[in-house]
Give the backbone structure.
Amino acid sequence: YLFCIIISNDLYADIKGDGFPLQKNKVTTGDIIEILKKMMIKDQNSSFMMRAAHTKSLGLVKGYFTICSDLPKNLRIGLFRESKRYPAFIRFSNSNPKFTSDKLKDIRGVAIKLIDDTQTNSSQDFILASCPTLPFGTLNEFNEVLYWGLKNPFYLFLNTLFQGKLTKFIQVYKMTKHDTSPLDIKYWSITPYAFGNYAVKYLLRPTSTYHSTLPKDLTDAYLSTNMQRHLLTNDATFDFCIQLQKDKTKMPIDDVSIQWSETESKPIKIAEIRILAQNFNTKERAYFSEILTYSPANSLIEHKPLGAINQARVEIYNELSAFRCAKNQIPKLIPTENNFTSI
């Protein structure tokens, strides 16, 4: 029946081609921004507007980001030029664009903001997720899937089926998990960044001695509960690593569906993150988690985001952050060491 409807609407030619059946022109980043703004207004009934993605914070924690003192000379670049310890606000989240229960399988995110009072107009952010790749890995795929996934998920499913790419949805589903705790898992940047003249991807590898267990009965907030239980008595630690691009074909910049082999490019530890034992379950910390903004664009020039998808992400992050701040009547905040010690 659906197939007959499509044929009757003279859409068969589009189905055979590369474009989406109902989309004559390519989806642009601007199209995505507009539909995300409408979604934020429609779906959020509260007076305070939250993020359009990674909406649910699992906890904003304070930690220290320490540059390794034994880096080889060729890696002493930008932020990593000398060994130094930076305070950091680290936000863990679920990736779902809705404020959903932890009972649902999901991909986790972590956003790291370094605090440097000598840089008054900018900050260094690192944004990673609990999966190494995105199955829809080119800019066109990224834009179309994001746009139609928000506007008409059933239509997106049909078109993906017609294009023979249904396995990509299966790959996305396999990336979603019931994790024991955000402090127990690995995170990848997915997209590449500059490291001076190099292209790299980031990797965050847990090294804590404490490890949470999955509750027998999952609750709506079990991830935050496990994370808080960990940090009430123990520090949490991670190795912050880079993967150097060794082969431009096997490790492309503009196709993030291809995982950079950790055998061909072994992760190199360049910093350590230590999250001190703390109580993050406070109203002040929860509020601060929502007014902070993170973006791939927040970086030194030596560590600028690379590739077409990162360019789109920068535009989306910056536009939606400004939109959210305006709706909430809150100016963009660059946190200081005073914020770090007082919250």
